[in-house]
Amino acid sequence: MPVFRCSVALAAPLDAVFSFFSNAANLEVLTPPWLRFRVLTEGEIPMARGTQIDYRLRLHGLPLRWRSEITAWEPPRRFVDEQVIGPYRSWVHEHRFDIEERPGREPVVIASDEVRYEAPGGSLVERLLVAPDLKRIFRYRTARLRERFGWPDD
């Protein structure tokens, strides 16, 4: 099963970063406009293990519905969402939030993502479509996170 990994260092307190990720509405902020992503679940979404969230998006012009379920919820360090309904045979996305201490400087939060997925159509679809899409989506996400929280001086 392919695995995609990405991380970004953020100059913000752990609680602020985790709180941002805990609000499902912020997925729209972190998702590139070309996906036309929208959260369909109405109202305030209380995040916890077992919470399900419905979305819609367009992927390569195809309208898709997606439902994910929070299968692990460990504030403020980690949570996992898994596809229940959607375009993949399997999709498990782990979000981790770690503090990196830096002697003589403010600590930073490392926000890490690990996505384990299985694409329909097998390895050819994964190589030609899914892997490039994930890189592009997470580059956008990283840029939005840095705009919101800043990034540490090296």
Walk me through the structure:
With 154 residues, the protein is an alpha+beta fold. It has one domain: START domain (Alpha-D-Glucose-1,6-Bisphosphate, Chain A, domain 4, 2-Layer Sandwich). 27% of the residues lie in helices and 43% in strands. It is built from 3 helices and 7 strands, in the order E-H-H-E-E-E-E-E-E-H. The protein has helices at residues 14-21, 26-30, 122-149; strands spanning 3-10, 38-39, 52-59, 62-74, 78-85, 90-102, 105-118. A 7-stranded antiparallel sheet has the order 1-7-6-5-4-3-2, with helices on one face. A hairpin with a 2-residue loop joins strand 6 (90-102) and strand 7. It is globular, with a radius of gyration of 16 Å. The chain starts with a strand and ends in a 5-residue tail after the last helix. The mean pLDDT is 92.
